[in-house]
Amino acid sequence: MEYYIQQWAQLLSKTLGEALSPEEIMTKIEIPKFTQHGDLAFPCFVLAKLLKQSPQSIAEQLAVSLNHKAFKKFEAKGPYINAFINRKEATKETINRILYEQEKYGSHTFGKGKTITFDLSSPNIAKPFSMGHLRSTVIGSAISHIAEKCGYQVIRINYIGDWGTQFGKLIAAYKRWGDEAAVKRDPIGELFKLYTRFHEEATLDPQLDQEGRFWFKELELGNPEAHALWEWFREESLAAFNRIYTLLNVTFDSMNGESFYNDKMEAVVTELQNKGLLEASEGAMVVRLEDQDLPPALIKKQDGATLYATRDLASALYRKQHYHFDLSLYVVGHEQTLHFNQVKSVLSKMGYSWADDMEHIPFGMILKDGKKMSTRKGKVVLLEQVLKEIIERADHSIKEKNPELEARRIIAEQVGVGAVIYHDLKHYRRNDVEFSLEEMLKFEGNTGPYLQYTHARGCSILRKAKVKPSVIEDGLEDDPSWELVKLLAWFPHTIEVAFEERDPSTVAKSLFKIAQAFNHYYAHTRILGGAESKAKLGLTRATILVIKEGLRLLGIQAPVEM
Ligand code: ARG
Q1: Whether this model's pTM surpasses 0.90
Q2: Which atom of ligand 1 is nearest to the CA of 312?
Q3: 164 CA to middle of ligand 1, Å?
Q4: Residue 272 Cα, ligand 1 centroid: separation in angstroms?
Q5: Is the CB of 161 under 6 A from ligand 1?
Q6: Based on the structure, what is the number of domains in the chain?
Q7: Is 140 in the pocket of ligand 1 (CB under 6 A)?
Q8: How far, in Å, is the centroid of ligand 1 from the Cα of 379?
């Protein structure tokens, strides 16, 4: 599509005696809402002043003087001049390009030679994997796939929350009330219970908080008992998280969590001190950020314990040295915006201009009946259970639709998990998302199963045809195929926008439109047999290639039957 915009802009510019440059014209070209108004439109208002004529008469004159082989005709419509692309040529061109490039279609090279680190998922050990961490995982991995498609090298880092005062509290709680066998049976559930109990009882018994602080201090000092407990909690938690990652089909290049930076923190504190940035405030050490309109960043507590911000400074420095990133993205909920602003500001003050390449990618919450799903007070929805339940339900509905299906269990998993991922990614990431299993699993409407089903339907047409065209000789001209081809032609541009906006929902929306257009096409066309059968099968194959690749970018599998 960009090709046609360019061609037309050049033609217009030439015809207008270069009154406007092709680049200026390109920014003004619009896509008409209705097909009967053509494929591209140029508003002539901008020319009225320059040419001292009414936009209507300019449009009329242009309609008769323009001529280009890529376009079938030009029509004046009020103050607009509309261009109708030569469909036969364009459909052939687009379909052949997709059939030739296959899964590479939509790739870009502008990221070549550049590296992006992604901070994503990053759940906290000894706590359930929350809905927020699910969002970080699926949004982060989708953006990382999109970045790869744009040519970037990507490093996915799971910054596990495995350090901090909460582990002092957990050790204190375990030492008071813990039961080894119970923890072994249900590690996360039991540890989380202990943690919750600690908070409840600490309101009545101030002694507890002191114990918590004591144990964290011991942990930071390397006390073997504290360390062994922490190690055990960590291992059990990672095993549980890994089950979720396997289901979601996500992988990481680094699992360096907060504790990895324990021996790298003193250096940060010293550097801050040497650069004259560290100040004592009420016994704690802080970096003042008033000039940035931010509250001070807490670097060290009164008792010498380091903090979340200190660890993020150390990890940012490490990542820059280690990965030489050109961009460093943090996919973390919007409640941490202040934290990331502080970390970036401190790094700038330290003289690191690359702090500007750090970007917080915030996202909204997952809501249930309009309310936040909380991990506090033991009131949690366990993700693993949610995934298992949705797989069961998917299995059930597939059985009803297609009782003969062979690998049903595997497909149910792909459909169930895909439904959860798509439901998240179809919303613009900053918006909150209402959680609903029923909504996610619908086979109609804007859902994962609908896209997968459309893909499987396309595959089944090709199976029946027993041919898999890899090139077509003639293009198509009818409205339904043209609508579909136009959407497919926009796909590369969609990828670029999705990357620039760090927004997977751009891809989701485009796939949904493609699936709708394909189903519309399918309903209006006899694809198998009849005239133009090769071109129609070519278009079918091009469509499923794009849907499959788009789903892959979102982290969703595309079964060939379901
Ligand atoms: N573990 C943190 C939490 O659950 C998220 C970590 C985000 N990444 C970071 N570099 N701070 O809130």
Answers
A1: yes
A2: 10
A3: 12
A4: 22
A5: yes
A6: 3
A7: no
A8: 21
The answer to whether 103 and 541 have CB atoms below 8 angstroms apart is: no
The identity of residue 91, as a single letter, is T
Is the residue at 292 inside a domain?
Answer: no
> What is the H or E stretch that residue 278 is in?
strand 278-281
Atom of ligand 1 nearest to the CA of 339: 11
- Is 11's C-beta closer than 6 angstroms to any atom of ligand 1? no
| Model confidence band, residue 374 (pLDDT cutoffs 50, 70, 90) | low
Identify the domain boundary among 35, 65, 85.
85
Which domain, by its residues, includes 74? Answer: 2-85
Place of tokens 């992604």: 118
Same domain? 54 vs 20: yes
Question: Distance between CA atoms of 146 and 107, rounded to whole angstroms?
Answer: 9
Q: What is the dihedral of CA 4, 515, 390, 495, to 10 degrees?
A: -10
ipTM over 0.90: yes
CATH of the domain at 467: 1.10.730.10
Closest ligand 1 atom, residue 336 Cα: 12
Could you tell me if the CB of 122 is within 6 A of ligand 1? yes
**Token pair in block for residue 98:** 């997709």
Closest to 506 measured CA to CA, from 420, 454, 428: 428
CB–CB of 497/507 below 8 Å? no
User: Is the pLDDT assigned to residue 376 strictly greater than 80?
Assistant: no
357 and 394 belong to one structural domain: no
**Closest to 192 in 3D by CA, of 98, 127, 117:** 127
| Distance separating alpha carbons of residues 251 and 544, to the nearest angstrom | 25
- For ligand 1, whether the C-beta of 163 sits within 6 Å is no
Say yes or no: 346 and 448 in one domain. no
Same domain, 217 and 346: yes
Per DSSP, the residues of 206-248 read: HHHHHHHHHHHHHHHHT-HHHHHHHHHHHHHHHHHHHHHHHHH
Residue with tokens 């998280």: 241
Instruction: Give residue 159 CA to ligand 1 midpoint distance, Å.
Output: 7
Q: Cα torsion for 211, 261, 360, 276, to the nearest 10°? A: 90
Q: Identify the bridge partners of residue 284 per DSSP, sorted by sequence position.
A: 281
pLDDT bin (cut points 50, 70, 90) of residue 78 is very high
